[in-house]
Amino acid sequence: xxxxxxxxxxxPIWLNADPxxxxxxxxxxxxxxxKFSERGGRIHLSAVQQDDQVIVxxxxxxxxxxxxxIRAIFGMFAQxxxxxxxAQGGLGIGLTLVSRLxxxxxxxxxxxxxxxxxxxxxxxxxxxxxxxxxxxxxERQEKPKANHERRIxxxxxxxxxxxxxxxxxxxxxxxxxxxxxxxxxxxxxxxFRPDIVLLDIGLPNLDGYEVCRRLRDKPWGRNVMIVALxxxxxxxxxxxSREAGFDHHLVKPVHYAxxxxxxxxxxxxxxxxxxxx
Length: 277
Known about the structure:
This protein has 9 helices and 10 strands. It is of the alpha/beta class. The longest helix is centred in the first third of the chain and has 17 residues, at 19-35. Strands 1-2-3-5-4 form a 5-stranded mixed β-sheet, with helices on one face. A 5-stranded parallel β-sheet has the order 7-6-8-9-10, sandwiched between helices. The protein has helices spanning 19-35, 84-87, 92-104, 138-141, 159-171, 182-192, 208-217, 235-244, 256-263, and strands at 3-7, 42-50, 53-60, 108-112, 121-127, 151-155, 175-179, 196-199, 225-230, 248-251. It is elongated, with a radius of gyration of 20 Å. Helix 3 packs parallel to helix 5.
């Protein structure tokens, strides 16, 4: 019940790009526009060349973004307040993935909105082959910077969230596995032997607290960095995570760069290094 308008240039615009990953970028933006627009809404996709950049815009007539939330929209697990009832577990990982993929191509992405009920606009800028960015390639951009490979287990009952976060971590040079409930997390960890576990608290079968306790009971689990990624951030929640054996308790939304920085200090004591995006 929605209308999609597409406006493209008459001539091809050439990029040094990975078509699969750009399909993920624009597929994600179009999916969000559809998801957060009412039946009968309009979505407009346009592309124009400006100097040595191609500007691709996805604009919709949907629920919009409050002015105070635009800057944080690309943070992991970020949710627009008016969108939470439709988010079905969160939308921010997808936009974090969009931002990361665009940056890997030497570009940038910006969110715009005039406010709730007034639609949203996402503007992606990418370098073209005719400009000064000829030396940029996705292959070179995606190599991790000053980061050695780690084995990371991502545990979240929202499969899309787990998959997107795992993909982001792989782009930074890590090896990842996913689990979607407490029992599966313990089984996967025993086989995978991760260096780091990113563990949601509210899980089916066993909650994150119990998963953490059982991992700590294993000889191989005593030196694993276990990080709570949770929407629960009250003092009681942090106390329980500390007592269960978590090294850190991060409250969603979490900035991806802050998460990578945390990984760089695996010798830190379990002092609850809390960061909120």
